[in-house]
Write a structure and sequence with these properties.
- This protein is an all-alpha fold.
- It has one domain: Growth Hormone, Chain: A (Up-down Bundle), CATH 1.20.1250.20.
- The chain contains 16 helices and no strands.
- The longest helix has 31 residues.
- It is globular, with a radius of gyration of 20 Å.
- The relative contact order is 0.16.
């Protein structure tokens, strides 16, 4: 297997950053198309929303073993195979009218995204050390947020001019470009291979789950990202079907909220050297205050602008919490970076998919007040976990 050459280190790092947003691109690019897909397939909203939740569940579950795979068999080979199969799965998606085939492809795409992203997370731990590693891991979470920012914006225009299939053609083209560049410039970065057997995997996962700061971090990552996915599941339907705006406007709304997530990431990076738990608690308190304000405002006025404005502010706090905790968890076990990254992503995205889809299924948000209710549930869960951390520390 070709080893990464020192002269290609910078280009390979750029390519790694290019692959990190693939999961966000695959989830968000077709958000403005979801209402049209429901109409074209003659299916209820929940059936189309399920395509997103299925992807996230598959993405999360895959990461449980993806870390062991990339720690045992290397990062490079897994990346190449994932990109190739991505292309195949996206092309199958656009060629079918059967929702069950689309479900199957979304399962496959979630699994491939898990393998590809875990391999690139581990890349940064392999190649960089100390403060430089910390810097790149923090930047990585910000770059990852680029997917949710640009994807629905592009998807809105693609839906308007070419239909929902064009979203997956674009994803196939992007995957092909990454595959070609990886073959030209990248290489293997794994220095020592861990054994790939179930006993080793269970032993490492047991050690990580018993590390309480790491465990609580995974939970907080899942709850923070659930705020974004909660809005993604219901936002386009509210904006297009209830408010009467076009898919392009829905794409702009998602673009703005994507920037909110990135702003939270930048604030997190700027405050990287501040005391960890106090800044997380302050962010959670601000988040709950904004949600309560959203409740109050909903009784006075409710329109596209207030909906997006409140969601923007709340998503900034969610992005801040996620950025801090995700970077912390990825660097917590540097000798098992793939496993730590896989477990963090796995637990976080399973929590995200289950809670966000569950809240949408129960509340069935159609107005701003109901969106605030969903946010409130997630904010209170975050407060509960942070309270548990404080109680535990008080008894140590």
């Amino acid at each position: 297997m070709r080893i990464l050459k020192e002269k290609n280190k910078f280009i390979a790092t750029v390519l790694a950053f290019g692959m990190i947003p693939i999961s966000g691109l695959a989830t968000d690019i077709y958000l403005p198309s979801m209402p049209s897909m429901a109409t074209e397939f003659n299916l209820p909203e929940s059936s189309i929303q399920l395509t997103l939740s299925i992807f996230l569940i598959s993405y999360g579950l895959t990461q449980f073993f993806a870390g062991s795979v990339v720690d045992s068999f290397g990062r490079y080979r897994i990346s190449l195979i994932s990109m190739f199969l991505f292309i195949v799965s996206f092309l199958i998606t656009v060629s079918t009218k059967n929702i069950m085939v689309i479900y199957a492809m979304r399962v496959m795409q979630g699994a491939l995204a898990g393998l590809a992203v875990v391999s690139k997370r581990a890349f940064f731990v392999d190649v960089y050390e100390g403060e430089q590693r910390k810097h790149y891991l923090s930047i990585m979470t910000i770059v990852w947020s680029v997917g949710p920012i640009i994807a629905p914006f592009i998807g809105g225009y693609l839906q308007k001019h070419f239909g929902w299939q064009s979203n997956f053609y674009v994803l196939a083209g992007y995957s092909l470009l990454l595959l070609i560049l990886e073959l030209m410039f990248s290489g293997e970065t794994l220095k020592s291979r861990n054994p790939f057997h179930i006993n080793f995997l269970l032993k490492e996962y047991d050690r990580m789950f018993r590390t309480k700061d790491f465990f609580y971090g995974m939970l907080m990552c899942g709850l923070s990202y659930a705020m974004v996915i909660f809005f993604n599941l219901c936002g386009a339907f509210i904006i297009e079907h209830k408010m009467g705006y076009s898919e392009v406007i829905a794409g702009y709304a998602s673009l703005i909220l994507g920037f909110a997530w990135m702003v939270g990431g930048f604030i997190g990076k700027a405050l990287m050297n501040k005391a960890f738990l106090p800044k997380i608690r302050y962010a959670n308190f601000i988040q709950l205050a904004l949600i309560i304000l959203m409740f109050a405002a909903s009784y006075l006025t409710s329109n596209l602008y207030t909906l997006v404005a409140f969601a923007f502010a709340i998503h900034v706090t969610a992005g801040f919490i996620f950025n801090n905790y995700f970077a912390y968890c990825l660097g917590r076990f540097p000798n098992s970076a793939g496993l730590a990254g896989g477990l963090t992503g796995g637990v976080a995205f399973i929590i995200t998919s289950a809670i966000s889809y569950g809240i949408v299924a129960i509340i069935k948000p159609e107005i701003q007040l109901q969106v605030a209710e969903g946010y409130f549930i997630l904010g209170i869960l975050g407060l509960f976990i942070l309270s548990m951390i404080k109680i535990r520390k008080a008894h140590i």
